[in-house]
Amino acid sequence: MSLEKQKAFIIHCIFGFILLIMVYAGIKYVFPLLMPFVIGIVVAMAFRNVIDLLEEKTHIKRTIISIVVLISFYSLVGLIISLIGAKFFHFISTLFNSLPSLYKETLQPVFQMMTDNMFDRFPSIKIYMDDFINNIGQSIFTYLSNISTKVVGMVTGLASQVPTLLIKVIFTIVSSFFFTIDYYKISNFLIHQFRSEQRDVIIKIKDNIIGSLGKFIKAYALIISITFLELSLGFKLLSIPTPFLLGGIVAIIDIMPILGTGAVLLPWSIIAFSMGDTKTGLGMLVLYIFITVIRQILEPKIIGQQIGLHPIVTLILMFIGAQLMGILGLLILPVIATILVKLNREGSIHLFKT
Question: What is the pLDDT of residue 329?
């Protein structure tokens, strides 16, 4: 390798490294700040074809159609979130508020009966075990009380964030109206800021982003459907009332960051055990383990097939993205990789040989 090629290689590496840092900083810090407007753009893109079709068929102005479509969409979303959110927060608050009393009324009498039987059979150990058992009981009660206080505090804290969330929601809704109504004006203005040879690459990137996001939504819709079927069948086998309704609610909770099915199934299992319902308690625990294992196996494979990446590559990207940028990175890094692979195949960029 000649000296000039070595210099060019080093310059390209430095440029690539700087570009990666800029992309990382943009996604990590700038992207969340602009999230209301990003969501507004996504909503505008999602309804563009529907609005174009309605405008063509009805000959009504795009502005009026956009307003009607978006109002209908946000009304439906608001109704669904309100119903599910209210029931979920009420369930969590009631559950953790009742943990200490559940312990006193169910677990503590069981422990007391077991220890009394043990003392009847082995009277000599009573002196040594009394303090030990009392300490254990007190520790468990204190632990459950602390958990209840913390969880209720978290729920209250989330409620206190409502004003901030409301502001973000308002900006998201307002921006989506502007982006939807003036979609073609805004996109044409942005496209004309680039030279003609750059426009093709920009359009390809935009099409790839939309295509990749669509495939991601399709992949997670399939994952949610599988989780829903697993939950519904599990609830049905355990003779839980309204298994399909509960399966749908828990499946929706499963896609929420941090929560997952464990936020419902594990507390349910603990309560069932504490009330002496071993079948339901064990069933919920087995169902949670089964769903978690299946999810970990299928998620990389399904997403990889949809976006055109090998499952192991998808798994690596999801793990790295989650470590670097949390939930956002879990979703964004595979999308970026998909876009780069497609652009490389189309010849727009040359990162690796195919």
Answer: 72
